[in-house]
Design a protein that fits this description.
The protein has 250 residues and is mainly beta. It has 3 helices and 15 strands.
């Protein structure tokens, strides 16, 4: 009996030792300690590029956080709070956009056209596409088109997502076109989106806030891990907001 007991004791001791070893290895990976450890693509330390937790899906980079736009020297990536490398926020240019306020029960409308150059290979038909509009009050409008919902036209390098307008908050027309800039030789993507929603958080008449407080808004579009944005001061006209800036302002 004694040899058997010793064998069991030895086995138990080995298992305990193994568990301690595994436990210490698991504890060794600490995201946020400025050390790139096993399982981490990067480690930003106590400050990091962040996600917007109130947006679904949750992994939508927060371009209003300057760390998400400041890529590390010599790279095209930033490090997130989950110790993952992701492309930094890129400017959304040539961005005529418009918000039109409408009397209820009709919904307000939003439309935009923007141009950008992605940092990675982008396939709108195979990746989630998220659209986000924010101001000082937080998220004004958010929509995600799941992978597979865009209809591709590979001959023309165009992707379309079209729904019937049905009085619900939604993007009802979203198009993405790919082309080569003849001047720069870069591959560009053109976004055209139209949506309907209650946009009271942008309306001074509804919030009681001043035009100066509400005029700065951020448009953000995510395609997979690529993210594009424009933060600018809009102009309030008789029926809503207008944006005709060709360049991003911070």
């Amino acid at each position: 009996m004694l040899p058997i007991m010793r064998a069991r004791g030895g086995l138990t001791g080995a298992v305990v030792a193994l568990c301690l070893l595994v436990g210490s290895a698991a504890q060794a990976q600490v995201c946020g300690n400025s050390v790139v450890e096993a399982g981490e693509a990067c480690d930003p330390g106590p400050a990091a590029c962040t996600y917007r937790p109130e947006v679904t899906p949750a992994l939508v980079i927060d371009c209003t956080n300057v760390r998400c736009t400041e890529k590390a020297a010599g790279t095209d990536y930033v490090c997130t709070e989950q110790c993952v490398r992701t492309p930094s926020c890129q400017p959304l240019l040539d961005d005529p956009a418009r918000i039109v306020f409408r009397a209820r029960p009709k919904l307000d409308t939003f439309s935009l056209t923007g141009r950008t150059v992605p940092l990675t290979t982008m396939d709108p038909a195979a990746e989630n596409v998220s659209f986000l509009l924010t101001n000082m009050n937080g998220v004004v409008y958010a929509e995600t088109v799941l992978a597979g919902k865009f209809i591709p036209n590979t001959k023309l390098d165009k992707w379309k997502y079209v729904l019937k307008r049905n009085g619900l908050p939604q993007i009802y027309n979203f198009q993405i076109n790919k082309k080569v800039n003849r001047t720069t030789g870069e591959t560009e993507f053109i976004f055209k989106a139209k949506s309907e929603s209650g946009l009271d958080m942008t309306n001074p008449a509804a919030t009681g806030q001043s035009v100066d407080l509400l005029k700065t808004m951020t448009i953000q579009i995510n395609v997979g891990d690529d993210v594009f944005y424009n933060t600018a001061a809009w102009e309030l006209k008789s029926n809503g907001w207008h944006l005709a800036d060709k360049f991003m302002f911070l």
